[in-house]
Amino acid sequence: ILYLENGESILTSKTLKHWIDKCNSNLLLRSHKSFVINKNFIKSFNSSAGEVILIDNLKAQCSDQGRKLIMNLK
Q1: What does DSSP say about strands 59-61 and 42-46: parallel, antiparallel, or unpaired?
Q2: What pLDDT digit, counting tens, does each position of 30-64 carry?
Q3: What is this structure's pTM?
Q4: Which H/E stretch holds residue 43?
């Protein structure tokens, strides 16, 4: 499911890699095998819980590699 800024969601059968390649944006970050987030929407990062808090208070999980990517943003 893709969650859009305007509140809509899109159910897709395409992989996240497909959408990352199609968008071709350096704003997208693969935080976990199941999550891709827009860097501009990161509100905070909870390293102990391994999750990113987005500006609309949604939470996205982070893998170890995703944590490293997010820590390098700041």
Answers
A1: unpaired
A2: 999 999 999 999 999 888 888 899 988 888 989 98
A3: 0.76
A4: strand 42-46
